[in-house]
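Hi everyone,

Forwarding the result from last night's run.
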Amino acid sequence: MASADQHTPRRAIGFVIVAAFGVGASQIIGLLIIQFGAADDRIGVATGLTGSIRATGGAIAIAVYGSIIRNKVGQNLVPKVAPAALAAGLPPSAAEAFITALTSGSLTALDAVQGVTPAIILAGGEVVKTVYAQAFQLVFLVSMHLVVRHSVGEVDVNLPLTIFSSGFSIFAAFFVNCVDHLLTRQVVVKLEEPHLFHSHKTNLEDFVGKNSARQELL
């Protein structure tokens, strides 16, 4: 996904499909392994802790990635959009108003900018797409355990660390305990035991009979 941008929609769609299969399988399989490995009276606690840990990690990731996108866009939006718009014929005095209107997504605001033309809007819009695409590319690079230093705009591509962390994750997967012996038909509580069903049916018949007797008396 770090190589995808607004000009490569097929690549982005393909990577999303592949990632969806991997993420879905790892989420479900991981949860099942935890539930099968926990004692019967601790399944609820184990499942709840798993969900809490994932939610906490997700909240932290959203905060970090959101900060990366905001900082990256804030650093590059004006310096890159303004030259492109000026080169397309935008008057320098209208540069600030044009960028504000362009990022707002309002056609009415764009039409109100002095000297704006469809060519200027097209040039500025293309640069805005590029800026946001680069911001999301940086997010995917960070998620691949690349080292970010000094500022969000400077990235140190530490390939040995990336290879080590990815390889260690794959290596550790081989040491997950086998749960095949726990894949049985036995459950802690059976909801439809025959005696429970008959007991429920008998109670229901008694209730209906009592109500009928009351109605006859009335």
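Residues 146-157, 197-202 have pLDDT under 50 and may be disordered.

Cheers,
N.
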